[in-house]
């Protein structure tokens, strides 16, 4: 019996390696090549054939990247994927091999790769007017600003367009400091808000911080339900913010900035009740509340359009990027008319902020989310996916935690559940095998041991099944 099992395992291993070498035939055909395929998950069918690729090879691109681009750039996988085409929730490499995209360009592609309506809006605007300046009138920027403001609560209706999330957070922090006449800002440990001067100060992971002047930011204890001191008790964590105000500042602050679900930090959803308590303390100290929606915004959480809504709070400033343009370089800061007035003290100008092509794309994204009920899909499919991942946790001891909501989910891998020892090497092995089986997934967290699952919001139940089945298969090979 033992020899039979060994022969079967060897057969499956040979079959899997064969699939990896000859994948230009398609994942579907390879997965059903022989009887042993019953143990290998099958990618959902997708009626689409990408156009032939005639560009440079992965090797050529890697050589040029090494010679001409920043040495700080890194890539996933031992043999990086040369992505040459995308369609909805799928990506294709130079050989026409199809991959399920479970990362969405770092929570950026929300409608789907090359969504026809978004592409049409971009092409149409480009043919009419690619760029002018906000010194002239153009309806693209005002149409999108009006539509965007309609998605926000209260008096949040004045929009400043930027080109990225970093830039949006920089502007928000500057506005808060000017408006309140205070330099002190409170952020969270494990936060990531960008890599420019002020935002690097608000970021609280040494991996992303250079040794340059970063002043005026105080980092509170992170309300992490899995690794935090107080579990899921949000109000206990909030007491630390009160202490920071009393013992780390003059008693008056400019702002508090946070994500509702920390993205780069490893999909950490803040403990329940945390934001209401903190917002109350910050406002008593004269400060503004800034919600960083760069990753959790635009229906990604499924249950709500914005991440901050999951904690039933209304911020004074909201920043956004990534999903706002489905991949177009676009960001925004939305605030109240009263706070927005602060920038009239001097001249504030952004050459590309509000570019007509980018804002036309942004408006198309909002329309697609509404028309195709992508928020509802994120909620339904995301809830189902989380349930399946939770079930996987009971099968594989290496899974320490499953968290998040909608299609912003995290799976933390540990080598010891009690000690919560980060499984840094093991996660790389699983990622590699998942890629070989046709699934691209993100990785993050301070220790680099958390799977970040942030696919396009058109992700289907069948896609969710495939992702979990592939993860299951890969983990079983550890």
Q: Total number of β-strand segments?
A: 18
User: The biggest beta sheet, please?
Assistant: 7 strands, mixed
Side by side, the strands of the main sheet go 4-12-11-10-7-5-6
Number of helices: 15
Global mean pLDDT: 92
Kindly state the percentage of residues in helix: 25-40%
Which consecutive residue ranges, at least 5 long each, have pLDDT under 50?
A: 1-38
Radius of gyration: 23 Å
Ends apart, CA distance between termini: 23 Å
Based on secondary structure, the structural category is alpha/beta
Cα shape? globular
Estimate the strand proportion: 15-25%
Question: How would you describe the overall organization of this protein?
Answer:
The chain is α/β, with parallel strands linked by helices. The chain has 15 helices and 18 strands. A hairpin with a 2-residue loop joins strand 1 and strand 2. The longest helix is centred in the C-terminal third of the chain and has 22 residues.
